[in-house]
Design brief:
With 299 residues, the protein is an alpha/beta fold. It is built from 12 helices and 11 strands. It starts with 28 loop residues before the first helix and ends with a helix. The structure holds S-adenosylmethionine.
């Protein structure tokens, strides 16, 4: 719902590719709500708001409230870097958004600062605390970026499991200009966590391989974008902040529905949604192999 972000993580949107859309190019909250309402009419039941940093867009509460009021949307989630989370908790609690994914790659202050561009870790931790106190269900997402260390994985696992959160480790996808991804890192992460905790396989949800850990309601998840299961577990479609509908994270193009949304052209929006939803099988896969920028797509 926005392609702007207050962080500057090198693996997500490398500096020289941080081309952000002008305000007038963004879908308005009314336009997003209208599109999601039509998607719900076609059978979509889950919505996740992401970005850029969704909590950085002005008046985001208006959108969360509007999406919460759509019939047929049973599950509402938000993906955030957590830096602005604490102040938004009362607003979130007032809506039906209950599933929060917080992206956090390290608990080391210095490395957080060098990865993300500022010392936001205390704010993220305060946001997580407030969310848990408010009874929200949280997952931590950690990208195994090139500088990721096994100690990050162990620290994050201990932190999450103690608090009953799922902690999911995501293999870094190749983003144009973001440097090399580390092959094999997820195996190393899983092995290190498995030698500290006893991991009991808990099946697959979506793209994640999950493991239960005795004594915690939280689980460990491994998300390997290079594995075949990654695409099989994906039933998502994506709507960018500027109105591009995509069936796949790796799609090069997409269907532009911004003008249709501006004109209130319901039949054009419906046709575009149908083409993306019902051709998902055929369209999914690593069409481009490299993600254009994660910041513009939403992860
Ligand atoms: N700003 C929000 C956040 O930080 O969660 C939402 C947008 S962010 C693009 C969504 C997710 O994409 C985050 O969990 C982020 O870590 C993940 N992500 C970004 N770049 C990635 C990459 N190169 N490979 C895998 N995941 C990536």
């Amino acid at each position: 719902m926005t392609d702007r972000c207050n962080l500057n993580c090198s693996y997500c949107a490398p500096g020289r590719l941080r081309v952000m859309s002008g305000r007038s190019d963004l879908l308005s909250y009314e336009e997003i709500t209208a599109i999601v309402t039509m998607a719900a009419e076609l059978g979509v039941t889950k919505v996740r708001v992401t970005g850029g940093e969704p909590l950085a867009r002005r008046g985001v509460g208006t959108l969360l409230t509007a999406l919460s009021g759509i019939d047929g949307i049973a599950t509402l989630g938000l993906t955030t870097n957590g830096t602005l989370l604490e102040r938004h908790i009362p607003g979130i609690i007032a809506t039906r958004f209950r599933r929060l994914n917080v992206s956090l790659d390290t608990l080391d202050h210095d490395r957080y600062r060098s990865l993300c561009g500022f010392d936001g870790l205390p704010r993220v931790l305060a946001g997580i605390r407030s969310a848990l106190d408010a009874g929200l269900r949280l997952k931590l997402n950690a990208v195994c970026w090139p500088g990721f260390r096994i100690s990050d994985a162990l620290d994050l696992s201990a932190f999450g499991l103690e608090r009953g959160m799922d902690v999911r480790f995501i293999g870094a996808m190749r983003v144009r200009g973001a440097g090399r991804v580390r092959e094999g890192i997820l195996d190393d992460v899983q092995e290190a966590i498995g030698s500290r905790w006893s991991l009991v396989p808990d099946g697959r949800r979506g793209s994640a391989n999950l493991f239960r850990v005795e004594g915690s309601t939280g689980r460990i998840g491994i998300i390997a974008p290079s594995s075949s299961g990654f695409c099989e577990g994906c039933g998502r479609i994506r709507l960018s902040s500027t109105g591009l509908l995509r069936s796949c994270l790796f799609s090069r193009g997409g269907v532009d529905i911004r003008e249709a949304a501006r004109q209130g052209n319901r039949s054009a929006i419906k046709a575009a949604l149908e083409s993306i939803i019902f051709n998902k099988e055929a369209a999914s896969g690593r069409e481009g192999g490299v993600v254009q920028t994660m910041m513009g797509i939403g992860g």
